[in-house]
Amino acid sequence: MMMRHASLPLALVLGMAAPAMAAAAEQPAPRITVVGEGEMAASPDMAILSLSVLREADTARAALDQDNKAMADVIDAMKKAGIAERDLQTSGLSIDPRYSTVKPDGKPQEEPKIIGYRALNSLTVRVRDLGKLGAIIDKSVSLGVNQGGDITFTNDDMSKPMEEARKRAMLDAIARARTLTEAAGVKTGKILDISEQSYRPMPRPMAMKARSFAAAAEDSVPVQAGENTYHATVTVTFEIEQ
User: Is position 1 within any domain?
Assistant: First the structure.
């Protein structure tokens, strides 16, 4: 007796295979993600200097008048030293009362009493000729600057060192991916994704506190600009060729 084998219609066979084919097509190709880092050092070509004038008097008007006179002299000296208008910016102005909790006879009093006023005017100066920096600090102290003095060295144009840092980060990512894939016995394929993070150099202030201004006025202030380091990080995803 001969047995008949049941055969499924072609349409049904294709219908059953379609989900499996679709599932295979949806599976992403093997990939590898690496992080590359790059740095670029550049000598700074500009210094940002913070200068402040603090004056105290019995009245707010007197304190402000004295403060204004001293700061006006400082600004005038900056301009004579070659600092452009665009590189001079008032960064702070405050007038505050001064309190005392002690009576004239030295005994404590319950409520603080105003005994005078304090005026503070701050100026941010961008010095593009670093050779003049020490002399500018000296001159400002001679004219009445008695607060601040923080210096931050930077670069006027940060695009070039950052561009080089990004290139180095990308080359580093490519080298890392090749090292890993070669060790695994496969090859690096096309790039699927790139993301980047860049870091400008952190400000490195050289602080000159108020107590050091007396000495600074007598001698030229020695300054060393050093170098700024620009850092870039890229995350790159490559397809793996097997």
Answer: no
